[in-house]
Amino acid sequence: MQVISLKYFDASYDEDMQRGRPSNKPRTDFGRRVYEARMTKGLSQAQVADAMNVTQASYGAWERVPVALRPEQVEKLADVLGVSVAYLFGEDSSRRNSGPRGKARRLLEELNELPRSQQNHALAVLEAFVAKKVEA
Fold first, then answer.
1. Can you give the C-alpha Rg of the chain in angstroms?
2. Distance of alpha carbon 61 from alpha carbon 65, whole angstroms
3. Does one domain contain both 78 and 124?
4. The domain containing residue 45 runs over which residues?
5. pLDDT, tens only, 37-71
6. CATH no. for residue 85?
């Protein structure tokens, strides 16, 4: 009998891929502001969860369902995300890095809506371009 190796490397899967299935729950207003601030800062849910000393699943719920956070958690979350507490609660529409949305930001927001495989292709091109620019 011949042994067949089931071990192989598939480059389409890597550690930066989204884990789990996408939620079908709409974000709350608070969750939308938290999500937008996290994406602006370029952080993953796991990174924010680590900084907040909670599990990724707990943090993920903060972006999706109504939650009751302690005041110190809200302050720390605002600090980690680089926004004001007032912004998180919708009382202040300005963020610390407020300003007009540039073309690059709009494109990155649209890129975020694409399927993960298409995002990876676009990001690979962008990373190669930036790396080449740094070398120059």
1. 18
2. 6
3. no
4. 25-98
5. 999 888 899 999 999 999 998 898 888 888 888 99
6. 1.10.260.40
